[in-house]
Design brief:
Layout (H helix, E strand, L loop, with lengths): L10 E5 L3 H12 L3 E6 L10 E4 L1 H10 L2 H7 L1 E3 L1 E6 L4 E6 L10 E5 H14 L3 E4 L3 E7 L2 E6 L4 E4 L1 E4 L6 H6 L7 E12 L8 E5 L5 E7 L2 E9 L9 H11 L5 H9 L5 E11 L5 E2 L2 E3 L5 E2 L7 H18 L3 H31 L4 H15 L4
Parallel strand pairs: 1-2, 1-12, 2-8, 5-14, 12-19
Antiparallel strand pairs: 3-7, 4-7, 5-6, 9-10, 10-11, 13-16, 13-17, 14-15, 15-16, 17-20, 18-19
The structure holds flavin-adenine dinucleotide.
């Protein structure tokens, strides 16, 4: 891209320096927009989980020019193994790449992915201010006036809310939207060294709780496990998380069993109740627009939330570069993103519901495969 056609977009404020916010920042900065990126976290950290990066997510990262570092610092593969919960191997899925030269799927530790994106943000000389949020947004003519939590102000041609599920931008400018809906499931995750026999990603079926393992680097994996959410299980201390994870893994064999037997209190363990929503249109209000979990929050069933956030950042910058006016660009962005994100969210919630209802494994596999196939289409 060689610059936005819309003369009036010279500056943009991005609220939220996570996966979607950084993707948008990198693309807009390359288009010649002066980007001001702010994040609430004074240390600009991300928690210690691994993340699965599917083919479409890898395609989006290739578009961002970051695929080589992701391949080098994460792990990529062209196959996954499906096991019964006791470890019995059911089949090995050969996964075709969706584009020439692109790995089929992969994983990376979130802090590593964050650092790769942060390095590119810095390489683009994007202004980054931390420990900051917006407290007021007011549109006046062709600009948006922002008030910040440190009592300073700024005037921008465009404001992007990429501040995740509890979005402050959404609260300030999108009264027709609400919080994501709980789905009734929760996700347990543990980051740990690679089991000696682990040579590809794995999924385990047939137990009360489905689980999977993704390789995230030379000696790093994370295991995720989905359970029915029990009220009161939201806030657990380290000992409860450790015992809870171990007991949920009790029936498992294979590498999941190895992780249960070798996990220690030093490992990063987390539990999070799941919630999702595809927010109703419009996704923009004048010159304020939302992307990522702020507007299309999903559950991990298709491992596609981050991919959707990166794609949204790319599409927003593309439409701003293509259109003749801001309203047409933001409408085009919304229309390119809405159905695709809604499909991911609806399919993910449907898979979770089937798991809660003890649906047949072939029915669940069919939903997953169908949704992933549709996601392979260009965005
Ligand atoms: C349990 C679980 C597992 C998942 N696993 C996967 C997976 O394997 N693969 C996958 O693709 N996706 C996965 N996802 C989804 C993925 O993590 C998200 O969709 C993705 O991170 C969304 O990116 P984002 O930029 O919208 O938000 P985030 O990456 O969360 O970034 C938001 C940023 O905004 C900042 N912020 C928050 N509030 C404010 C504020 N008021 N002001 C300023 N800044 C603020 C935060 O500090 C943060 O830096 C998973 C989600 C869950 C819940």
């Amino acid at each position: 891209m060689t610059g936005t056609k819309i003369e009036s977009i010279r500056s943009a404020l991005i609220v939220g320096g996570g996966i979607g916010g950084m993707a948008a920042a990198i693309n807009l900065a390359r288009s010649g927009v002066a980007v001001d990126l702010i994040d609430l976290d004074p240390d600009w950290r991300v928690y210690g989980a691994g993340i699965t990066i599917t083919g479409p997510t890898l395609r989006a990262y290739r578009h961002l020019g970051l695929i080589d570092r992701i391949k080098a610092e994460g792990a990529v593969t062209n196959a996954s193994r499906v096991r019964l919960f006791d470890g019995t191997v059911l089949r090995v899925l050969e996964e075709p790449a969706i584009e020439e030269g692109l790995p089929a799927t992969g994983g990376i530790m979130r802090p590593v992915l964050h650092r790769i994106m942060q390095d590119e943000v810095r390489a683009q000389n994007i202004s980054v201010r931390l420990g900051l949020t917006v407290t007021a947004l007011e549109t006046s003519g062709d600009a948006v006036d922002a008030k910040f939590s440190n009592d300073t102000t700024g005037r921008y041609d465009l404001v992007i809310g990429a501040d995740s599920v509890n979005s402050a931008v959404r609260d300030l400018a999108f009264p027709h939207m609400g919080m994501p809906e709980p789905t009734g499931q929760g996700c347990w995750r543990i980051s740990i060294r690679k089991p000696p026999e682990q040579d590809m990603g794995e999924f385990y079926f047939g137990a009360e709780s489905p689980c999977g393992i993704t390789i995230c680097g030379a000696d790093a994996v994370y295991l995720f496990l989905l359970t029915r959410h029990v009220e009161g299980e939201r806030f657990m201390d380290d000992a409860e998380l450790f015992e809870g994870m171990k007991s949920h893994l009790a029936p498992f064999g294979g590498n999941a069993g190895w992780i249960r037997d070798n996990m220690s209190r030093e490992n990063w363990i987390n539990y999070r109740p799941l919630a999702a929503v595809c927010q109703p249109k419009p996704w923009y209000n004048g010159r304020i627009v939302l992307l990522g979990d702020a507007v299309h929050a999903t559950t991990p069933h298709l491992a596609s939330g981050a991919g959707m956030a990166v794609e949204s950042g790319i599409v927003l910058a593309e439409e701003l570069a293509r259109a003749n006016d801001v309203a047409s660009a933001l409408l085009a962005y919304q229309e390119r993103r809405f159905d695709r994100c809604k499909d991911v969210i609806d399919s993910s919630v449907a898979i979770g519901n089937l798991q809660l209802e003890h649906g047949r494994p072939d029915q669940i596999a069919g939903l997953i495969e169908g949704a992933l196939m549709r996601l392979n289409a260009p965005y």
